[in-house]
Each structure stands twice: as C-alpha cells, then as structure tokens.
C-alpha cells in the first residue's frame, strides 16, 4: 500500500538521499578505476542539478505565494467570491449521484 507523505517528509527524504550520495562521492574519492571515476562524475553532476532545481523550485514557490498574497490583499472580495463559487460547485458535484 502506498503511504501518503507530507511535503516536509518528502523534502527531508530528498535531503537524506543527497547527503548519502555526497558520502558516496567522498568515499570513492581515492578510487582510480575509470568506471568508478565516470560514475562518480555523473553522480556529482546529478547532485548539482538536483540542488539547482530544488533551489529554483523553492524560489518559484515563494514568488507565486507572494503574488497570491498580494492579489488577495488587493482584491479580497474576488478571493471570497472565488472560494464561495468553488464551494457551491463542489457541493453541487457531491450532491449528484
């Protein structure tokens, strides 16, 4: 059965994965085999990409949240009307069988 995870749990799990991958990179620093070196370099590139993407995702999420906050503060009645209409629509959908 698939367990639902919160965003915080997923974020913590991703951090643990990144830390373990970094430990693997550090542990194989003395290896001289070409295959190990190429795998290590690929892992380093993948970790850098993951860190960059997570940083960009976080920045976009913060930007969007501030835009939504600003919109709601500027137009509170639009936001209340939207929530009200959404509630009516969902109530109508759930009442239909």
UniProtKB/TrEMBL annotation:
It comes from the Bacteria. The keyword Membrane applies. Keywords: Membrane, Transmembrane, Transmembrane helix. The chain crosses the membrane at residues 77-95. This is DUF883 domain-containing protein.
């Amino acid at each position: 059965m698939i367990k639902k995870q919160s965003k915080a749990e997923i974020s913590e799990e991703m951090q643990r994965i990144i830390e373990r991958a970094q430990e693997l990179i550090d542990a194989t620093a003395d290896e001289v085999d070409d295959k190990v070196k190429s795998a290590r370099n690929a892992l380093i590139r993948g970790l850098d990409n993951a860190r960059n993407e997570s940083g960009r995702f976080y920045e976009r999420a913060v930007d969007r949240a501030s835009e939504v906050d600003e919109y709601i503060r500027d137009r509170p009645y639009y936001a209340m009307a939207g929530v009200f209409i959404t509630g009516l629509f969902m109530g109508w959908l759930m009442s239909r069988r």
